[in-house]
């Protein structure tokens, strides 16, 4: 617990003369005058006599509680600024409808999301962002060290973006890469990385993959490219005349372009047929040079005076009741 107005604690100094005054007053309290008190000297004191000091003690406790309220007690998590070692990373993920295929278990998109989530959890000090693309591209999450929010946005990634028309279906590898580069180009980190995952060839978009690679090279951004497909003969459902028919096909992935992108930017090209191969990419990233990042942690403060206000009310009631009833002093 912290206090917003600590200077009010100086009021506790005023309690010192007040307590002394109450003590002196108790010595001068009204008594019954008798000719000789020797007969009362050996009589035991009653409980009421022993507790005559209690109302004054309750008043001192009440004043102390009011001072604490004036100091504004607050609850807050620790906060501050720390310097950590990290790199800036953008994940560029293909969300075209072909990512629903199940040659990667449970599906290409789910395997990519699972391994990406594991990667994010293992790198708490990195600035990481997320771009999704089909025939169009947009930033799902800008670079952030708030990985809880990033993971929440990653969970919302789905091929339904293309299926439902949120994004036009297709594979714009160049646009996906360019969108990620736009987030990294102004970064001050020494190491800036794009991890681009796709299961197809660039078939739309105004920017070709190689044009985007040249931009990445200009800014010194390293690009890791991943072709996420098994290469096996697949049964793909297609709607024909109101019915669903399955056709057998193989993916047409432009591995040559993906390899060129990686080569031009000092990255590496991977063909991922399972989650373990995706994890090997992240091990490669771990070996990159890290740069210092200032991470500022803020916390929300909540006022905590309520409990002290309740205590003050109870102390006031207790003093009034005792002073006017059982512990009342008669003049």
Structure description:
The structure is a single chain. By secondary structure, the chain is an alpha/beta fold. The protein has helices at residues 15-27, 47-50, 54-70, 108-122, 147-155, 160-163, 173-184, 209-219, 255-264, 275-286, 306-324, and strands spanning 2-3, 73-75, 80-86, 88-94, 127-133, 137-144, 192-198, 222-228, 234-240, 243-249, 268-272, 291-297, 302-303. A hairpin with a 2-residue loop joins strand 9 and strand 10. Helix 4 (108-122) packs antiparallel against helix 5.
Summarize the entry for a quick read.
The chain is 38% helix and 23% strand.
The number of E-state strands comes to 13
Uncertain ranges:
none
The H-and-E topology, N to C, reads as EHHHEEEHEEHHHEHEEEHEHEEH
Beta-strand proportion: 15-25%
Mean pLDDT level: 83
Radius of gyration: 36 Å
Q: Order of strands side by side in the largest beta sheet? A: 6-5-4-7-8-11
- What about the largest sheet? 6 strands, mixed
Distance between the termini: 45 Å
Helix count equals 11
User: Which descriptor suits the 3D outline?
Assistant: elongated
Structural class per helix/strand content?
A: alpha/beta
Helix percent band: 25-40%
């Amino acid at each position: 617990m912290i206090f917003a107005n600590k200077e009010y604690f100086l009021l506790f100094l005023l309690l010192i003369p007040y307590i002394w005054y109450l003590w002196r007053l108790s010595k001068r309290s009204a008594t019954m005058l008798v000719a000789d008190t020797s007969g009362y000297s050996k009589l035991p004191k009653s409980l009421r006599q022993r507790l005559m000091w209690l109302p004054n003690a309750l008043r001192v406790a009440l004043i102390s509680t009011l001072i604490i309220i004036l100091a504004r007690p607050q609850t807050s998590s620790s906060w501050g600024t720390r310097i950590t070692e990290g790199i800036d990373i953008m994940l560029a993920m293909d969300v075209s409808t072909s990512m629903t295929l199940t040659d990667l278990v449970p599906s290409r998109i789910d395997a990519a999301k699972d391994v990406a989530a594991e990667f994010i959890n293992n790198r708490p000090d990195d600035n990481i962002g997320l771009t999704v693309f089909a025939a169009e591209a947009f930033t799902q999450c800008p670079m952030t060290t708030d990985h809880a929010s990033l993971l929440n946005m990653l969970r919302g990634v789905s091929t339904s973006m293309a299926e439902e028309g949120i994004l036009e279906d297709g594979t714009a590898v160049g646009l996906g890469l360019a969108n990620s580069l736009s987030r990294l180009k102004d970064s001050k980190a020494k190491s800036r990385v794009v991890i681009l995952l796709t299961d197809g060839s660039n078939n739309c978009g105004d920017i070709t993959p190689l044009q985007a690679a040249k931009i990445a090279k200009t800014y010194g951004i390293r690009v890791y490219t991943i072709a996420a497909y098994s290469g096996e003969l697949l049964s793909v459902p297609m709607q024909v005349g109101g019915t669903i028919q399955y056709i057998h096909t193989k993916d047409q992935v432009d591995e040559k372009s993906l390899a060129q992108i990686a080569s031009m930017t000092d990255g590496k090209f991977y063909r991922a047929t399972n989650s373990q191969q995706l994890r090997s990419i992240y091990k490669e990233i771990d070996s990159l040079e890290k740069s210092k990042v200032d991470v500022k942690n803020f916390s929300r403060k909540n006022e905590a005076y309520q409990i002290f206000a309740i205590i003050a009310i109870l102390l006031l009631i207790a003093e009034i009741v005792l002073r006017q009833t059982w512990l009342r002093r008669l003049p």
